[in-house]
């Protein structure tokens, strides 16, 4: 059975044909909706009407969020690693005292 699906998504009044994995369809459609919603919000809040400008601003917005999440993820990884090391040290100490 073919695991791919051909769909069309509309972003900024343009239709984009895509071939995706079947299990990605919902996420792709949600992503396209988020992009369109962000473009509409920018259009209503600012005097920008050019779809290219709206799309560029939307791309910048989501790229900034992705980078911010990367940074937060790195900090979280370091915190989790530190906590795991603390737990490991406590377990080692406990096991040493049990001998």
From TrEMBL:
Stored Gene3D superfamilies: Cell division protein ZapA protomer, N-terminal domain
Keyword Kinase: no
Keywords associated with the record: Cell cycle, Cell division
GO biological process: cell division
Superkingdom of source: Bacteria
InterPro entries, sorted: Cell_div_ZapA-like, Cell_div_ZapA-like_sf, Cell_div_ZapA_N
Protein name, as recorded: Cell division protein ZapA
Source organism per UniProt: Salibacter halophilus
């Amino acid at each position: 059975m073919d695991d791919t699906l051909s769909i069309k998504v509309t972003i900024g009044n343009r239709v984009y044909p895509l071939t995706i994995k079947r299990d990605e369809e919902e996420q792709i459609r949600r992503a396209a909706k988020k992009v369109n919603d962000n473009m509409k919000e920018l259009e209503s809040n600012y005097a920008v009407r050019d779809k290219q400008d709206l799309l560029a601003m939307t791309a910048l917005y989501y790229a900034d969020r992705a980078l911010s999440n990367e940074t937060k993820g790195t900090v979280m990884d370091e915190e989790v690693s530190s906590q795991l090391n603390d737990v490991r040290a406590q377990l080692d100490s406990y096991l040493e005292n049990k001998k």
